[in-house]
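The following record pairs a protein chain with its ligand, iron/sulfur cluster.
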Amino acid sequence: MRPLPVNFREASLLDQAHWKDWRWQAQHAVTDLDGLERALQLTQVERLGATRAMAAGLPISVTPYYLSLCDPGDRDCPIRMQCIPQADEAIVVKGDLADPLGEEAHEVAPHLIQRYPDRVLLIATDRCGVYCRFCTRSRIVGDGGGTRSMGALEPAFEWLATHREVHDVILSGGDPCMMSTERITRLLSRLREIEHVDYVRLATRAPVTLPQRITDELCRALRRSHPCIWVMTHFNHPKELTTEAQEACGRLTDAGLPVMNQSVLLRGINDDADTLERLFRGLVRARVRPYYLLQMDPVRGTGHLRTPLQRGVELMKALQGRVSGIALPKLIVDTPGGLGKVPVGPNYVVSHDEGVTVLETFRGDLVQYHDPPEP
Ligand code: SF4
């Protein structure tokens, strides 16, 4: 990897053509301790974290764009905490799992995971622009496998062709947008040959960490596969909703692609109602629907980033009535072992007796609701 030639805080001085080129961004991603030291003044905890991550084979990658969002003077910067390793990554706490969603146990063909009857996950690449420190798939991202060849994915396509109950394919990784547009197009075309696949979800963090990747060329290519493509992205903090990121989302929605967002609840990053409110409102303004707030999966080495489950419930209660329904995602626990997602949240039903339900409103008022008489 070529060393980055500039100070990240002077990104605006860069040749704009380079800065806007997603391949340049990917090629100049910082992938080691030296690069991080050059770009930020690391704390001892981060230095130790990066050293340990490299020794443990947990990859580091931060695009120049995402690194430019890190506050060099703030060790608690919410962007920095998502992409710079912490020493605590070496600590394993009770409940930690290398594969929290049991994906390996649910692999039905190479690179194809089925956890629900009607949908599957296709892992097309191990690469991401940024390796997030909370990644559920940290056991495989950046493992050197790169983009899976069409031949390597053929058994997955063959399995899909014989399983008519599957209607929904999530194209994931790694980040599928790290593949060339030509490869993405070939994959989508191959999936569209399978008649019972109704839609494909492109799961990508590119609008967040590498918005330059959302080119007009990519949007045109995705549009050609429409109407069956949905884009699922992953903003966690309002600071990520930069002009570039919003423009990237705008290019997708202008191309007619629905864009949905799932956020992960992260300790010290977004686990307060004001931050989540700003995030969800900002997403809706960018025409992105916040659909899940995920309780963090118990990925090995991420205990320092996880919140107690009750914290998410309290936050949902704080946000109910404060933001409109289109801005309020569901709080979800993806159960360890891969047994499926469970929605959780505050209980607004105070009592139910003889056809009368007492409900608690967001203001704390108790209101009776009467069922209709039996027919
Ligand atoms: S972009 Fe997604 S797959 Fe890649 S490291 Fe981040 S969370 Fe994991």
